[in-house]
Each structure stands twice: as C-alpha cells, then as structure tokens.
Amino acid sequence: MRTTASILHLDLDAFFAAVEQRDKPSLRGKPVIVGGTGGRGVVSTASYEARKYGVGSAMSGREARARCPHAAFLSGRFHAYRATSKAVMQVLRDLSPLVEPLSLDEAFVDLAAAGLPDLDVATVTEVGEQLRARVHDVTGGLTATVGIASSKFLAKVASELDKPDGMTVVPPGTELDLLRPMNVTVIPGVGPATTERLRRAGIHTIADLELVSEDELVRLLGQAHGSGLWQLARAQDHRPVLAERETKSVSVEGTYDNDLTDRRLMEGLLTRQAREVGARMRKNGYSGRTVTIKVRLYDFTTLSRSSTLPSPTDDGGTIGRVARSLLGDLDTTGGVRLLGVGVSGLADWVQEDLFGDEPDADEADEVVLPEPPRRTWPPGADVVHDEMGAGWVWGSGSGVVTVRFETADTPPGPVRSYRADDPALHRYEPPAED
Fold first, then answer.
1. pLDDT (tens digit, 9 = 90+) per residue, 223-256?
2. CA 358 to chain CA centroid, nearest Å
C-alpha cells in the first residue's frame, strides 16, 4: 500500500448495454439486456434500467425475461465494443504510461507515472474528473465510474461506491475506516463458498475479519487464500500496476442448445476445441503444460479435470488426446450442456515430438460434428439497406426481418419489415482490425 492515493481504477458503466443505447436512440432510457437471446443464453450486461428489475450479469436469459419481459434483448456487437474500448484505453495511456487493462471496460492506471505536479488528494481528484469528462467525449456519451486510492484493492472497491457516473477518492490513512463496515464479499476471491465458511465462523464484515489471526484464517481457508484475506482485511496490497498483463491460460468452450449424450460426439467437439486452442497459442507464441476440460452437466453441475504434461506443447492434436482422456473419467450419461478445453502453465518454448510414437491426431477425429445454427439476422445486429441506409435488427422470424433505421447520430428512426432474403438488405461488415 502506498502513502499516496495514486492508483486509479476506471470502470465503464454497464458497458455493452451503454454502447447499444448510444448507437440505438430508441433504446435510450429503456431496459436493455445484452446476451440471453438464445434458449440457454446468459446475460452479459444489463442496463441500469433493467437492473431495477433484478436483472444482472450471468443470469440465465430465461430468468431475465421473466423479471423484465419488456426489455430489449440484443445479441451483442463486439466490433463496436472493441472500438469503444480502444478509444478509452488510449485516453488512459495518454494520461500515464502504466495502464493495466482488466477487460474491455475496466483498467488500472498508475498516477505516480503520470507526471503530475504532486499526488495530493486535490490533484488526483481533479485528474479523475478530467478523465471522466474525456472518456465521455471520446465514447460519444458513455459514463465511467472512477476510484482512486493507495492500492489496487482499495481503488477497485472505491470505484463501486458511487455507480454509475461517479468518483470516490480514498485519502491516505482512511483506508481501514472505509473497509471495516463493509461485508467480506467486497474482497476479491470471496465467493459464496468462502462467504459461508466465514459466516459459520461468525465473520461477516471486514471489521470481524480484522480480529481473526492469520493462523486461524489459514486453518479455515488454506494457506494462500487465508493469508491473502488476512492482508487485504488490513488494507495491505502491494501489487504494482503492470502495463502488460501476463496471459495465464488459453481456452475455448461452447454451450449447446440440446444436451449432448453421444460420447463420440463429445470427443469430437473437444478435439475441435483443442485444435482452436492450439492455433491460438501458436498465433501468440505460447505453449503450455496443463490441459483442463470443463464439463457442465444437464443439472448445471460443473466439473473440471486437469492433466499436466512433462513439457509444454502448442499442438492441438496433443491437447485433444489429453482432453479426450480426461473426459473418459467423467460420467456424462445424464447429458452435457457445456464443454470446454483450456491450456495453462504457459511458456514460450515447445518440446518437439512430445508424443512422437502416438498415432496421428486426426485418426481419432473421424466424426461428423453438427454446426450450431447461425442466426443470419440476430437481434441488435447492424444492417444496411440499399435505400433506407443504416439500421439494426429489431427482430426476425418466419422468413421476415424487422429493422429500425437509426444510428447514434440520428433521432429514433422508422421501423420496416423485409423478407429475410431481400437482396437490398445486408449485414454490416465491420472493417478488418489492424
């Protein structure tokens, strides 16, 4: 923990939904939910208007529709999110060379490297306000919430206190006064299981946690987790802002509309995912030793199994063989709704011919895999009509596409319906990224 409030955490408010409302004037001020459009989809982001009805991230689309049936459910436009995020990250890098992105919509900034005249509370407060205004300008009206404190942990906690479109600065020396009344769930890594263990021990707030010895927490939660919580309960966090975050794993997963019961089909899907993981690793110059599969059963029980190789690999065939062997240890007779393959323990070198005596990977891959149906006109997708111009898919079905013609720079526009095969209607194709 620093002696100055010099770490800033910026979080774009309801980012995906906010981008959709920006680009779709008719949705401004109305409930918008990104994700959850399919039978088994989950909510990625809900606008604040939808959150009033209890809709939140990671909620099933079915539950979200039950809570807020009048919301606009959109499939998401990642080209728009990436472009907006890129503009925001550039603003942050213009402020300081030390920017640590956590995702498309949040990042840490080291203000000690920003060349400010000083790091007094008044100075960093002014910088935070100017930054929020700048983000609003470059994003076309999106808002961000900022937290500024003496550590990453405190800055992230602070950025949650005045949402949306707010800012909290934690003056040095007041960190524990802020933390003590808070529930233990504000600490990263304290999920439902840890919360229940702490509750059984009579620990509910950070003030309660502060009274517990490190040895007792280690006995309760294990060495790494217990020691980490003991330190954070005392506002002890010395992690630096890292401009380049180390990639810890590469993974691919898929959720399926119908439960999978055919073991050979599951093996084929894992094989295809393993090839994609290998291709991504080679593209980025990675290799890895630990192969993990993720399996979500019909009843939402999620299982994972891992195996560590003697040397790193980036070969999709090798990854696939290990993944298939791990699947063999699991009982999937009730049906599987999600499968995934990941590789961790990343390195920058590869051991050649790791399984040189084994058969070619493709020998195990002779299976016809069903391609998931591609929705030509998913809700929210950008389209262009030869006469009407730019718009977005309001809905589709039974061979008909309904489009609302509007953009971020127009007022709410008219709605028109067309045949799904109308030659004048086209999906918008974003320009290729550099």
1. 888 999 999 999 999 999 988 766 678 999 988 8
2. 37
Q: Are residues 193 and 314 in the same domain?
A: no
Band (354; pLDDT cuts 50, 70, 90): very low
Q: Name the DSSP class of 184.
A: G
Together in a domain, 40 and 156: yes
Neighbours of 118 (CB within 10 A): 9
Long-range CB contact pairs, 187-190, < 8 A, 24+: 187/153, 187/229, 187/232, 187/233, 188/153, 188/156, 188/232, 189/225, 189/228, 189/229, 190/229
Query: Measured at the alpha carbon of residue 246, what is the angle toward residues 245 and 251, in degrees to the nearest 5?
Result: 115
Q: What are the tens digits of pLDDT across the range 302-320?
A: 888 988 887 788 899 999 9
Residue 15 φ then ψ, to 5°: -55, -60
Residues of the domain holding 187: 180-232
Token output for 81: 């999110």
User: Does 137 carry a binding-site annotation?
Assistant: no
Instruction: Identify the active-site residue in 20, 49, 100, 106.
Output: 106
Residues 138, 3 share a domain: yes
* Whole-prediction pTM: 0.78
Cα–Cα dist 19/13, whole Å: 10
- 106 given a catalytic annotation: yes
Contact 56, 43 (CB under 8 A): yes
User: Residue 359: what pLDDT?
Assistant: 42
Which of 131, 151, 172 is the last residue in one of the domains?
A: 172
Amino acid, res. 245: R
Q: Tell me how many degrees the CA angle 145-148-149 measures, rounded to the nearest 5.
A: 145
Domain count, the chain: 4
According to DSSP, the β-strands at 43-46 and 72-74 are unpaired
105 annotated binding-site participant? yes
Q: Where are the alpha helices (DSSP H) in 285-386?
A: 316-327
